[in-house]
Amino acid sequence: MIAVDIEKKLKAYNGLQVLRIKKDFLPGDITRITGPSGAGKTTFLKMIAGLIAPDSGIIKTNSVTWFEGAQKINLSPQQRRVGFVFQDYALFPNMTVKEHLEYATSDTEWINRLLHIGGLQTFAGHRPGHLSGGQQQRLAIMRALAIKPKLLLMDEPFSALDLKIKSALIKDLQILFTELGATALIVSHNPQELDGVSRDELEIF
Amino acid sequence: MDLSPIWLTLKLAAITTLILLLIGLPLAWWLSKKRSLVKIIIEAIITMPLVLPPSVLGFYLLLAFSPQHGFGHWLQQTFNVQFVFSFKGLVLASIIYSMPFMISPVKSAFQQLPVSLSQASYTLGKTQWQTFWHVLLPNIKPSLLTAVVLTFAHTLGEFGVVLMIGGNIPGVTRVASIAVYDSVEQRDYAAANNYSLILFAITFVMVLSVFIYNKYQAKSPLE
Fold first, then answer.
1. Cα distance between the two ends of chain A
2. Residue ranges of the domains in chain B?
């Protein structure tokens, strides 16, 4: 389980606003995160991954404390090892599709499986500049999964995919999540996108 | 014609560029990250040689490293090192003088990379060093090449600083630009012309190569 109870001041168009989130995420659950633009959805995911520090509060998983303001505990992203799909994909322009996955893991069997699920086998030698938007997004998802994370944070991960590819991919991802025992937090603007998949919902406003 | 000033110039430019590459890369990376007042001051100091008359910089270096005065005297007494009127002094002066040409393009290139690239690498469990080596550095290659060539070419053309701290000792500190000046002073225009032509040709070919390389490569892989 991941228990989150944090606070962070955010700059908004009307001055400072405080982002306050208190929620427990159950293991294996997929939670859909919604909320208006600028509410702090991305900041929330980055705080869990250890890329941004909250102002105060606590983030705890089972027995390990990732962040505790009062105790000055703040584990690095490397220690937390959370799979993260960035909204802008954050692909490495110098690496091919396969090199992205090889950078993350040395398990070739796992790499081949991810290439297959992402429909990227024929593009294994291509750099991101030569991929379509949808292919880039699938690569970003596969790279996050390459480290076999127990927690996956996805920021608008299906926005560039057409309906058919999206539903096939979501089905495959569900199987992978179950296999990995992964908990997933998915930011999504599309209300129908995760119907029947996510069991929980968090609204940030 | 005595070619030793040309060789000496090339040697000076090569050593300066290599040392600046080693110092400049981590320094530019550090400067490209979150800004602070200390960083702004350091950056201003690094940029000073761009606007300061070279003779002013050379004069202060001469004062600082003169074996008759404080720091230079201490260096001489303690380590038996003398920078004034030596090749070592030329290297030191060139490093300071050419530093903005290495730091500035590399720092801008690092700043243009989206911060999410480093963040993505960290979430994959990679250290700052692995991220720098495998993700950041390969994606600033064109800017790095520009910085190396500019630093090299700029060092070839140094005059004021080099003259102040190195003087005009044949085979030791008499670089090509000083040889040109010296030849003109002695009314040996043929020699002056030869040195000038060689300098002009080398610099032109280098700058032209960078332009051609940048034309065929995207300026940055992210563009």
1. 24
2. 4-216
